[in-house]
C-alpha cells in the first residue's frame, strides 16, 4: 500500500490561494452527497461526518453524508459509479474499494474504469492481537504455532469477515510466511473482538481503532501492527515488517472517489477542499481518535495506489484461494 511513500505534508499539497468557488457552476447548484459504504455510528462514518462539516464550510455548499451499507462497501461504490459525473456524488471509502474489485468475480462496475480518485485522506493501522492467555507474544511465536497443523487453536484467528482488510492482512502474512491459519470470519469486527476477549478464539487481526481500548485495559495483548511504522499510541508494539517481513504494509487507507468522467476542474476543486479540510483540528482529531493518521495524497497518487492494491489483492486471492461469501 505504501501510504508513507505517497503521503505528503498537507501544506505542500495545497495551493495557498484557493478559489473554492471556481469553476463558477460547481458546487453552486445543489448539495454534495458523500456516500459512505459503512454503518452510521461506526469509525468510518465518524470521520466522514467530521470531514463533511469542514468541506461544507470551505465549498460554501451543504455536504450530506449518506450511508449505503452492504457487500463490503461495493453497494455504495455502485451508487457513485453510476452517478452523474458532476462532482455532486462522492464516495468516501476504505481500501475495501480495491479489495472488492480483486475479490468479487463480477461487480456491476469496474473500479478503475468507472471511478477516479479525488484525495487520499489518511490511514488506519490494523493489529494482530490476542487473548492474554494465548501462548504467542510475538508474530514469530504465532507463526511457529501456525506451522504445526495439529495445533488447531494455536493458529486460529478471528476478524470482521471474508474480504475484510483484516482478512487480507492475515492472508498476505500467510503467503509471506508460507503457513496456513485457521480463519474464523464474523459479521463485523465487533462480534469477533467480543469472542476473542471471551477467549472463544485466541487471536484477532482487525483495525486498531476497536482493539486499542481493550489492549490498554489488558483484556487483549498486541503482538504487532500492520503499518510500515509503529504507532505513537503503542510505541512498544513492533510492526509485522519489523518482525521478519520487511516491506509488509497493510494499513487501511481512507479516500474519496467520483465517477471517472468527472471533469478535472471539479476534481481539483474537491481535492483542494479535502486537503484544506485536513488542516482542521476537528478533522485531524477525528482521524486520530480512530487510531489513524492523516496522510494526504493527490488524485493521481490515489489512482496509482488503487491500481497497485488491486494487483496485490488479486495475487493474494489466487494464492490463498479466497472466495467471496
List its salient traits.
325 residues, alpha/beta, D-Maltodextrin-Binding Protein, domain 2, 2 domains, six-stranded mixed β-sheet, five-stranded mixed β-sheet, 13 helices, globular
Give an overview of the whole structure:
It is a single chain. The chain is an alpha/beta fold. It has two domains: about 190 residues, Bordetella uptake gene, domain 1 (D-Maltodextrin-Binding Protein, domain 2, 3-Layer(aba) Sandwich); about 100 residues, Periplasmic binding protein-like II (D-Maltodextrin-Binding Protein, domain 2, 3-Layer(aba) Sandwich), CATH 3.40.190. The protein is built from 13 helices and eleven strands. The strands form two sheets. The protein has a six-stranded mixed sheet, with helices on both faces. Helix 3 links the parallel strand 1 and strand 2. Helix 3 crosses helix 11, helix 3 packs antiparallel against helix 12 and helix 5 packs across helix 13.
Concise synopsis of the structure shown:
The protein has 325 residues and is α/β, with parallel strands linked by helices. It is 40% helix and 19% strand.
Summarize the SSE layout with pairings.
Elements: H1 3-6, H2 10-13, E1 32-36, H3 43-59, E2 63-67, H4 74-81, E3 89-94, H5 96-103, H6 111-114, E4 115-124, E5 126-130, H7 139-146, E6 156-159, H8 165-177, E7 182-185, H9 189-197, E8 203-207, H10 208-216, E9 221-225, E10 252-259, H11 264-277, H12 281-289, E11 293-297, H13 299-320
Parallel strand pairs: 1-2, 1-3, 6-7, 6-8
Antiparallel strand pairs: 3-10, 4-10, 4-11, 5-8, 5-9
Helix pairs in contact: 3-11, 3-12, 5-13, 8-13
